[in-house]
Amino acid sequence: MKEDGKKEDSKITIYSIAKEAGVSPATVSRVMTGNAKVARDKRERVLSLIEKYNFTPSAVARGLSDTRSRIIGIIVADIRNTFYADLYVACELAAQREAYTLMMLNSFGDLEIEKKQLNKLIEWRAEAIIQLGGAVDDLVSKKDYVNLVNDIASEIPMVVTGKLDGTDCYRVQIDAKEAMDMLLEHLHENNNRRIALLGGRNDVESTNVKYNRFLERKDKYGFIADDIYLNNWGGYSVEDGIRSMDELFLKLKLSGDPLPDAVLCINDNNAVGVIHSIKKHGYRVPEDISVVSYDNIDLAKISDPAITSVDYDYDELGQTLINTVLDAIGKKEIERLTLLKPKGVVVRSSSDYKRSVI
Amino acid sequence: MKEDGKKEDSKITIYSIAKEAGVSPATVSRVMTGNAKVARDKRERVLSLIEKYNFTPSAVARGLSDTRSRIIGIIVADIRNTFYADLYVACELAAQREAYTLMMLNSFGDLEIEKKQLNKLIEWRAEAIIQLGGAVDDLVSKKDYVNLVNDIASEIPMVVTGKLDGTDCYRVQIDAKEAMDMLLEHLHENNNRRIALLGGRNDVESTNVKYNRFLERKDKYGFIADDIYLNNWGGYSVEDGIRSMDELFLKLKLSGDPLPDAVLCINDNNAVGVIHSIKKHGYRVPEDISVVSYDNIDLAKISDPAITSVDYDYDELGQTLINTVLDAIGKKEIERLTLLKPKGVVVRSSSDYKRSVI
DNA sequence: TTGAAAGCGCTAACAT
DNA sequence: ATGTTAGCGCTTTCAA
Same domain, yes or no, for A298 and A196? Predict the structure, then answer.
């Protein structure tokens, strides 16, 4: 049996601490928050009791009391997707630096779930909400969803990585145009002429931006990219990549058009699928066809061959997301849209091959 | 200008609802929680006001009031690791079914960070804490960490996926012995004789269990596995896999021992590295060397060649984790250790090759 | 069935 | 510098 079992176990709060230290609860609160001067001796006494009892003040009570939860809600399309996990971790790190706690929920790309998660965050009185992917990516947003978001955004700041037009969210994004330009430059340097564009969905903003940017710039580099080589739909997964490339092979066979020199994929997962298809059809990467993509997640490095991919500064992105949140909470005047430059293209074997100029 | 701007915006709580509905706050609370009968008409009036104002009760206030936060804390070694992300999602799904919210924090395998995160969860008065990987995996746990954990575990349930001995945590794990047996059976069926064991760390419980199980059973199958083929250290990453296999090639070259028929890797990442090394050395998978591993994360499927891996029922694992938490919260008598059977081995090309019996 | 009132554990005036 | 007190927004006895 423990000594003094009964007394010792009674719930410990700032009151019990205060009593034992012979001070007022307010004083205990003051030494905890550091929001006011406290006499050296009292502080020490309080501190040692806190230490003794291993006291941890209740964030719940504090949240109620000062009506600042210090929680930032964050809805992620799917944390199992490395891209989002990378982003999430960057946010968590940044948030912790500012003494905020993230409350993370998955939406699985399901609008109903997303609404439910938003609600949960409101219940917890999150001071702001960040959304990584999901409905916020769609180019044209559902009416009732927009309404919900606007309802929320009128109360607390919402910052999204997508478009979500019709709402007044803050937006933080990687500059997709710039990302496209980097890849085009790289492909051009290696004398690729005939370029295919695969993966993604037309109704997703970042994909759409890339697509348009490509069309805008292709002539500058003398790229050949007839419609048959362009397919910005089919999704973002490995399987989607396989399907898109299989389809391209088929179409090319029927039309008699030559293979592309390079395939520009919408992300690394997609590229893995594309490579898979290319190998399956008996061609080599990069000797026959180069493959490049975006995001530079771990997969790009460990794929075989390793994939050339546009890298982002995830830490910067996370920090910017959090900064935007904090500024918005603090009612500072800030830009509605922040565009971050991609870090650069990491050249790997999938495209590290200079074609001869014929 | 909005109509009635001032009044409309004043914070809406159960009080404002109560007043407008002409009932007491208690009644509003009752209709929200459903904890007591409320006259039909009053309920309807309250409900319609809730609807009208889009009222969402404060979980913070509720948490303070009934001292049940309905938060389950969860510390993950690294959410960017697909294995943990899979596990996490399974937990989130299970938790939501029970109307609990997960508060997820990463430990990055750093003991100091882990302690800080534990503390944060205590601040938020998590009703229980789940730990996926990290310090809980270590076979021999650090003294002060054990003390901290025991301090916490004496207050709220802790359930871990690792060993964490010296503590009274609940443990939920995949049966590593069984998982090993499945792979051995598979390798045997394909007439692999000479087996190498690569990856992992000796001081991690699940790895250790597998290693010992292998030694225990190898003779039954007539496997040849001299010390030179065994290397259960080197870690869990792709790079670790490359290093381990490179090293094995080197040692074999020096000793003149033949190549193994199959390499049994500690997880899928490791296997990717091993395959990388094998290819690099000019051998083929599976024709020259078969490769198998554990966890069956997405990577196993999209790797080239696709990797044979032991699959788990992640949903079941998540649900069991949450059930254990709930039972423990409810002070039910439950087993301290729950062992789950692996789902089975998913055979893919990396080992789908029958060797001829010489 | 319903309301009044106390209390959850903290913070922040306000007074001293 | 410190104590008193009044909330924060709920839930839950306890009476009625």
Answer: yes
* For range A175-200, the mean pLDDT: 97
Is residue A357 assigned to a domain?
no
Band the pLDDT of A5: cuts 50, 70, 90. Answer: very low
Exposed, middle or buried: residue B283 (CB in 10 Å: 0-12, 13-18, 19+)? middle
Whether A276 and chain B come into contact, CB under 8 Å, resolves to: yes
Residue B228: how many other CB atoms lie within 10 Å: 14
Is residue A238 less than 8 Å (CB to CB) from chain B?
A: yes
In three-state secondary structure terms, A350 is coil
Q: Are strands B101-106 and A158-160 parallel, antiparallel or unpaired?
A: unpaired
> What is the residue type of B24?
S
Q: Considering the entire predicted model, what is its pTM?
A: 0.95
Q: Which domain holds residue B106?
A: 70-174+314-340
Strands B344-346 vs B308-311: parallel, antiparallel or unpaired: antiparallel
- CB within 8 Å: B302 and A57: no
Q: How far is CA A200 from CA A126, A157, A195, A313, in A?
A: 32, 29, 16, 22
Are B132 and B208 found together in one domain?
A: no
| B112 and B89, same domain (yes or no) | yes
pLDDT band at residue A138 using 50, 70 and 90 as cut-offs: confident
The tokens describing B279, both together, are 């290819």
Contact state of B92 with A106 under an 8 Å Cβ cutoff: yes
Same-domain check for residues B40 and B161: no
- DSSP conformational letter for A222: T
d(CA A326, CA A166): 23
Residue A36, Cβ density class (10 Å: 0-12 exposed, 13-18 middle, ≥19 buried): exposed
Residue with the larger pLDDT of the pair B49 and A165: B49
Shortest alpha-carbon distance between residue A104 and chain B (Å): 7
Q: What tens digit of pLDDT does each residue of B161-175 get?
A: 988 878 889 999 999
Cis peptide before B286 (omega within 30 of 0): yes
Confidence of residue A6 (pLDDT cuts 50, 70, 90): very low
Rounded to a whole number, what is the distance in Å from the CA of B243 to chain A's nearest CA?
A: 14
Nucleotide nearest to B125 (CA to C1'): C9
Instruction: Tell if the CB–CB gap between B304 and A304 is shorter than 8 Å.
Output: yes
For strand C, the positions having any atom within 7 A of a protein Cβ are 1-5, 7-13
Average pLDDT over residues A131-152: 86
Residues A303-319: tens digit of each pLDDT: 999 999 999 999 999 99
Examine residue B55 and state whether it is found in any structural domain, yes or no.
yes
The per-residue DSSP string of B92-131 comes to HHHHHHTT-EEEEEE-TT-HHHHHHHHHHHHHTT-SEEEE
